[in-house]
Each structure stands twice: as structure tokens, then as C-alpha cells.
Design goal:
- The structure is a single chain.
- This protein has strands at 6-8, 14-17, 24-32, 46-53, 62-66, 71-78, 88-95, 102-109, 121-123, 129-132, 140-148, 153-157, 164-168, 174-180, 183-194, 197-209, 218-226.
- It is mainly β.
- It has no helices and 17 strands.
- The strands form six sheets. A four-stranded antiparallel beta sheet has the order 12-16-15-14, with no helix packed on it. Strands 3-8-5 form a three-stranded antiparallel beta sheet, with no helix packed on it.
- It has two domains: 6-132, no CATH class; 140-226.
- It is elongated.
């Protein structure tokens, strides 16, 4: 008979509950930047892509990154017939980093079955594994929100000695900024790692002479994950 269980972290974020299945670390590694060939963004120093095949169409993977320089997400593609039910997802990035620079990443998703038997596991009322000591659960430290402006550079720090990565939830948000008469500059929201925290900023994609587009500002949302010892 279910008794109910909820565990919060010291920041007030729910980490474990018997009513929701907790995403876990599926893989980690590095992505290497290559020459930028994305259309409409000639000012970006490089680009990068990452692909992952889901175990089934019921999961929604989340990719957290920790670049050394500002890097922004430009889209998530479904490469199998271009439909949301596609198993393979592709994340596309633009970056201020030089070609050949590596970006640390952590991929979180749902695991359909436990990998081994441990002393402590939590299941929901439908019998789905919600938490297991065999896995490393996704740990959300904070959700940062604000308005994308130019120039924007903001560093947020948390607990000392911890490692944090950023999940961009609004990858298409760009800023059109009327810098000079008849000259519009387009910027992209980017994230980077920082000591005991993360950095958020905007970087130039393209300047368009003769364009009279008005200034547009967009809101952003960045989920900060604690990936210490992951």
C-alpha cells in the first residue's frame, strides 16, 4: 500500500517523489566544436551538434552543457521523418569558442528498467521505477529567468566546490537589436560554466546593414543542474 514520499533539496526543489519518475544520468562526455556553417549566423565562431537515440517514444531527454565560452542552442531536430515520435534527437549549437574546443555535457532521460538491485528503490502506484540508488538522478539547483538584452553577461554562483551545468529550455529565442541607424544586430542567448556556478550572456550572430527591424527583447529560462561527481 503506497504511503507517499517527497524529498526536497536545500533550495526547496523537489528531488524525489513517489508520484513522478525521476530522470537519471544516461551518459556524459564532450562535444567538439567545428567550423560554423549555419545559415544566418556568420559571426559565431563555431558550431556543434549532439545526437541521442531514445529507448522509446515516451521519453523526453534533456541535455545539460558546461562550455568554457558562451554557447547557445539553436534547435532540437527529430531526424527520423521529422516527427515528434522519432527516436533520434539532434541538438544544434552555436558558440563563441574556437573550432576544436570541447563542451562538457550530461544527458538525462528516463530508464525503463533498473540496471541492478539496490538497497533503496521507489516505485509509483503504477509500478514504474521512480528512484533507485543504482542511478544518478537529475538534480535541479535553480531556474534562472530574465530578459535577453545586449550586451548581457550575468554570473550566478551557488554552493562552493560544486559543479553546475545549464539546460536551455528556449533555444529559438533571439534578440534583434537596432544598434545603429539602418544596421540591425542579431544576438543569441548563450551559457557557460563558472566557478561554483554558471554564466549567461548574449553573443552576436549577424549584423545586417540596411535592415530597419525594430528592437525586440525576449525572455529566457535556464535550468541549472548540479552535476558534481557525475
Amino acid at each position: 500500500m503506497p504511503a507517499g514520499l517527497t524529498i526536497w533539496n536545500d533550495g526547496g526543489t523537489v528531488q524525489i517523489t513517489d508520484s513522478l519518475v525521476n530522470p537519471v544520468l544516461i551518459q556524459k562526455g564532450t562535444i567538439t566544436t567545428v567550423t560554423n556553417t549555419q545559415a544566418g549566423a556568420p559571426e559565431a565562431a563555431s558550431m556543434a551538434s549532439f545526437s541521442y537515440t531514445r529507448p522509446n517514444s515516451s521519453t523526453y531527454p534533456m541535455l545539460a552543457i558546461r562550455p568554457s565560452g558562451l554557447t547557445g542552442l539553436t534547435g532540437i531536430g527529430f531526424v527520423e521523418n521529422g516527427t515528434p515520435t522519432s527516436l533520434t534527437w539532434v541538438w544544434d549549437f552555436l558558440s563563441t569558442q574556437a573550432v576544436g574546443t570541447t563542451i562538457d555535457y550530461w544527458l538525462f532521460d528516463l530508464k525503463p528498467t533498473p540496471t541492478s538491485s539496490k538497497l533503496f528503490e521507489i516505485y509509483d502506484t503504477a509500478g514504474n521505477l521512480a528512484f533507485s540508488l543504482a542511478e544518478k538522478p537529475m538534480r535541479i539547483r535553480s531556474v534562472l529567468t530574465g530578459t535577453l538584452t545586449s550586451p548581457l553577461t550575468s554570473t550566478t554562483t551557488f554552493d562552493s566546490g560544486r559543479t553546475y551545468a545549464s539546460l536551455l529550455t528556449r533555444w529559438t529565442e533571439r534578440l534583434l537589436y537596432r544598434a545603429l541607424p539602418n544596421n540591425t544586430q542579431q544576438f543569441l542567448l548563450g551559457v557557460a560554466g563558472a566557478t561554483n556556478g554558471v554564466q549567461i550572456g548574449s553573443f552576436l550572430l549577424v549584423a545586417t546593414p540596411g535592415d530597419s527591424t525594430p528592437t525586440l527583447f525576449g525572455d529566457y529560462q535556464v535550468v541549472v543542474m548540479d552535476v558534481t561527481n557525475y
